[in-house]
Amino acid sequence: MPRPTLEKLCLSFELNKASPTVQKHEPHYFYHVSIVPLGDTDGSPNSKVKMKPRLIHSGESEISHIHRICVAPSVEQAINACAQDMCFTNELYIYRTSRKISNTYAPYGVFDAPITGERWLMRQTSFELVGKVKFDMYGIRYGSNFTSVNYNNRGGWSSLKSQRLELPRVRKFFRKHGKNIFFNDKNYQINIEQAKNTFNRSLV
Prior knowledge:
The protein has about 200 residues and is α+β, with helices and mostly antiparallel strands. It contains five helices and ten strands.
């Protein structure tokens, strides 16, 4: 049976108005990026924080009442999900779950989830700060090396193609510069393996 097109997958996520449903899957780390250090930490390497689900003003009114932690299976996909409110920052803090997780919630009302691999965590979860990357209104950079991130036009069907094409560029950037972005080689290697994983194909 042929796989549905990306557009049909995205439409199914946008039209799905049911309550979030928990799905069991292979144990997997998940990533969350933030423009500020989380919790009481000062952004020091490998600092840990317990994140609680919260309301997120993402522009999708149908899910504005849901307390959640938005995560993705790789840092590249977490950045690929960044929207307009990420434009005016100098640095992104990269957090990863402290342990692998085998139960997450499939999102709904989020049309680009088949690209970003977005999942929701609905309970307090421990995260570890594993890296930082320079980030400005045009994209991500390491030194003079730059990769554009077109987050200004997120959230519409017209941006779907550019968002899909952006992901391989961001992955290439992290493969090349990740050793200088993550705080140690272990964190770098974990993200390499995560990016290879086809976890997001199991979303539907």
